[in-house]
């Protein structure tokens, strides 16, 4: 598993955010029984930059906490059976499956942690977990989808003992 983290802002966290990202991503991969070695990219930005990305990519001109850009297409969320059919899904040098990109607003991590009364570590882990399930094809556009996705997120965070 390869996790690339790029920082576009000063990182004020009092925890090892790189090691935590690795733990969370690995736990998500294990939870869904993802059958391939994987690559995930994380970009840490401020509210201004995530707003620009959100406006450009989604035509929503406001800051958000996390954006997910899956590289894979799924017929059904969590169904990895067709991934090997497209060689473009794999890094040509490492052979790792290219899951996608995650963009996180560090500003929002800090604000939401304070608003929800938990640590920045918990919020950061939650946003990565949330985004990973998007990279696996899950969504929360309907109440049924939300129920499924959020239950999976909660299970991973509980397994990692990252609580509110």
Automatic annotation (TrEMBL):
This is Endoribonuclease YbeY. It comes from Eubacterium oxidoreducens. Pfam families: YbeY. GO terms for molecular function: metalloendopeptidase activity; RNA endonuclease activity; zinc ion binding. Its cofactor is Zn(2+). Its EC number is 3.1.-.-. Zn(2+) binds at residues 130, 134, 140. Single strand-specific metallo-endoribonuclease involved in late-stage 70S ribosome quality control and in maturation of the 3' terminus of the 16S rRNA. It is an enzyme of class 3 (hydrolase). Binds 1 zinc ion. GO terms for biological process: rRNA processing. Belongs to the endoribonuclease YbeY family. Its main location: cytoplasm. GO terms for cellular component: cytoplasm. Keywords: Cytoplasm, Endonuclease, Hydrolase, Metal-binding, Nuclease, Ribosome biogenesis, rRNA processing, Zinc. It is found in: Cytoplasm.
């Amino acid at each position: 598993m390869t996790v690339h983290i790029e920082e576009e802002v000063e990182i004020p966290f009092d925890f090892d955010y790189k090691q935590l990202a690795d733990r969370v991503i690995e736990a998500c991969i294990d939870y869904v029984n993802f059958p391939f070695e994987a690559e995930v990219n994380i970009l840490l930005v401020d509210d201004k930059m995530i707003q620009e990305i959100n406006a450009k990519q989604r035509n929503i001109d406001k800051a958000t906490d996390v954006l997910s850009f899956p590289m894979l297409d799924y017929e059904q969320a969590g169904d990895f059976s067709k991934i090997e059919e497209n060689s473009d899904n794999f890094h040509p040098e490492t052979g790792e499956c290219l899951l996608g990109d995650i963009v996180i607003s560090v500003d929002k991590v800090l604000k939401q942690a304070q608003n929800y009364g938990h640590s920045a570590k918990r919020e950061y882990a939650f946003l990565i977990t949330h985004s990973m399930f998007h990279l696996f094809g899950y969504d929360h556009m309907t109440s049924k989808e939300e129920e499924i996705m959020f239950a999976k997120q909660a299970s991973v965070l509980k397994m990692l003992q990252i609580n509110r």
